[in-house]
Amino acid sequence: MKAGPNCFPGCLSLSGPSRVTGIVGGSLSVECRYREEFINNSKYWCKFPCVLLWKIVETRESEREVRRGHVSIRDRPASLTFTVTLESLREEDAGTYGCGIDVPFSINPTFQVEVSVIPGEPVMSALGLLTVPGTLTLRENLERRVSWDP
User: Fold this and answer.
1) What is the pLDDT of residues 30-45, one digit of tens each?
2) Distance of alpha carbon 91 from alpha carbon 112, whole angstroms
3) Which residue from 11, 60, 110, 140 lies 20 to 30 Å from 123 (Cα-Cα)?
4) Its domain of life (predicted)?
């Protein structure tokens, strides 16, 4: 794994998408992969710059989902991943975030993720013009996953 512009101290211990996009009112998920040596460490999601008090959500127990407001995190040690989900997206959710691993007495590995939120596309219904929230995740490497939650 080569260090890039989104790489901060320890980031080679983490990987994931550098950019994700969601639709206002919908949700998006970010999957962060980590090395096996961090399987028992706490995982977190933070707003950049990531400092101790700016953690948005953090999990300490494997296979446990922790929710804070409209953001949740779930560690999946069997696949060496943790997933952060932002629901009921708002335009103000756009910004720079980080997947992080808490490493006591050391610099925490973090991986920077740019979150974009775009307006929902209006659709025509029998009642008039409506905006239908959904889930849209676009990754910079052209991988796409689109699903709708009517």
Assistant:
1) 999 999 999 999 999 9
2) 19
3) 140
4) Eukaryota
State the DSSP code for 27. B
The answer to whether 113 and 14 have CB atoms below 8 angstroms apart is no
Place of tokens 């992080």: 100
Contact indicator for 64, 127 with CB cutoff of 8 Å: no
pLDDT single digits (tens) 77-117: 999 999 999 999 999 999 999 999 999 888 888 889 999 99
Say if residue 44 is exposed, middle or buried (CB neighbours under 10 Å; 0-12, 13-18, 19+): buried
- Both tokens of 65, joined, read 């989902």
Looking at domain 14-118, its CATH class is mainly beta
- Tell me the pTM: 0.73
Residue with tokens 């790489």: 7
**Tokens 């101790």 belong to which residue?**
52
Provide the residue count of the chain.
Answer: 150
